[in-house]
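Any chance you'd type out a single protein's sequence alongside its tokenized fold?
>
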Amino acid sequence: MQSSMISGQPAALPILVDGLSAALRLSTPDGWIEARRLVAGDTVLTFEQGEVPLRAVHCSRQAAWVPPAFWPVVLPAGAMLNDQPVELLPAQMVLLESDLAEDEYGEPFVMVPALALVGWNGIRRCAPRDTTIVHLQFDTPQVIFAGGSLLLGCGGHGSAAANLFRCDGLITLRLAEARRLVADLIAEGNRAARIAARQDAAQAAFVA
């Protein structure tokens, strides 16, 4: 993205809220390929429609400094079966599978903003880096594989793409709804951990 000139000064870089890190590896028929290496016409593996060609690829530069409200979300290794830590922009849509989602919405798969995942499985926020963000555009919105069970929505290109993401057959939750669901997941995990701890303590007492 080129900066425009205002009064002889380059315009500030935009604050991006969705898009993929250029180094993020995505599943393709040719194996796992970094997002930065994809071009229009390349084929990417999608969640519902298999191999789908890219209509266009756009690259943007993230601003070097953004307010904390726009800081990215970091998924530590293993948070969603990802082999390595993954950094997602806060409005990037993520596919979440959960029995709780099925109980609430009638479907186990729902799309949620990455921001809603903070606090679950060690997911946190961090200060942004000056980095390249890649926007993948298909003819229709798609969900793509970014490793393990990490699947990400691509609804188009530009800063509003994630906010407008709608994919046939998948439920997209607003931030408040997604946060409630994740809070329930955290509470469920805490209950399971307490039960496991009591069981371990009882077994240790029995052995002693």
Observations:
- The first helix runs from residue 99 to 105.
- The longest strand covers residues 56-61.
- The CA atoms of residues 55 and 139 lie 6 Å apart.
